[in-house]
Amino acid sequence: MSDLVTFGETMLRLSTPVGERLETARELDLRIGGAESNVAVAAARLGTDATWLSKLPDSPLGRRVTGELRSHGVDPEIHWADSDRQGLYFIERASPPRETNVVYDRSDAAITTARPDDFDRSAVTDASVFFTCGITPALSDRLAETTDELLRTAQKAGTTTAFDINYRSKLWSPPEAREQLSGLFPAIDVLVAAERDIRTIFGYDGRPNDIATALNSDFGFRTVIVTRGKEGAIARHDGRLFEQPAFETETVDSVGTGDAFVGGFLSKRIDGAAVPEALEYGAATAALKQTVEGDLAVVTPSDVEKLVDPEGSGSGIQR
């Protein structure tokens, strides 16, 4: 049994050197990346027993994914497919005024046909926390049904369910996301959402703390975290609001920063920490991730502890 179980797609990431265009690049850097596996890696590197559930092609490309995750301490629980393909994504790295561009090649990837019966249900029913995100149900109708069933199975068993909205406009429109996510919300205990996503999908306005309060009131989450990039995060838990500023950092690669935040937060909560301390741990993990190339938060507990309050009192501010 793992303390943290995540479910979703992991792709192979191929990126150009900074300044190169995809149409002219002669070399691409090969790594892996996927929101739920990124969360699992961050938590595992911080000492949490973590498992990642998914469906992959039984091929060298699929095995490339699992080998990488194992190297960071994550236990992959995989339903292997004979004929489906491995999802890819390409990053064209750029500097201002040109923007970094992401190109997905994930249609008909193995994960899109995953069913609940492809996995041992005890993986989610015996976990402390089950996590997935809004990218996963956006990939296919089948996967939306599987995500819903796994969340409900976990919650019914007493497993804490955590979910990051992680909206991607290339996958679905705001109305489509609103309809699908609203159906999942009753099975979610802990919601993480970027402020911009909440405004885009649900039309909430006002201050971030007002948004967190409204989400909690409208949907009955146990914990709501509204992330704000360089402005930090706001959380509502047990009727209280907590504010966590972001840590200053020099960015090498921002991809996966939000996943690192979630991984650090969940790791600390699983350890029994209060929400303010877990927020601080998540913010520190996110800051450190930005100094690392690739999607994965290749950090250690000592890295994070050196960044947070040395007294261990936490910087979460009750409002």
Average pLDDT over all residues: 94
Task: Estimate the strand proportion.
Answer: 15-25%
Specify the overall morphology.
globular
The name of the CATH superfamily reads Ribokinase
Radius of gyration: 18 Å
Supply the number of helical segments. 11
Give the total of beta strands.
14
The side-by-side strand order for the widest beta sheet comes to: 5-4-1-8-9-10-11-12-13-14
User: What would CATH call the class?
Assistant: Alpha Beta
What's the order of the H and E elements? EEEHEHEEEHEHHEHEHHEEEHHHE
Which structural class do you get from the secondary structure elements? alpha/beta
Can you describe what's shown?
It is built from 11 helices and 14 strands. With 319 residues, it is α/β, with parallel strands linked by helices. It has a single domain (38-52, 68-77, 115-318), classed as Ribokinase (UDP-N-acetylmuramoyl-L-alanine:D-glutamate ligase, 3-Layer(aba) Sandwich), CATH 3.40.1190. The chain has a 10-stranded mixed beta sheet, with helices on both faces. Strands 3-2-6-7 form a 4-stranded mixed beta sheet. Helix 1 (35-45) packs across helix 9 (257-270), helix 9 packs antiparallel against helix 10 (275-289) and helix 10 (275-289) crosses helix 11 (301-307). The longest helix is centred in the middle third of the chain and has 16 residues, at 141-156. It is globular, with a radius of gyration of 18 Å. The model is unreliable at 314-319 (pLDDT under 50).
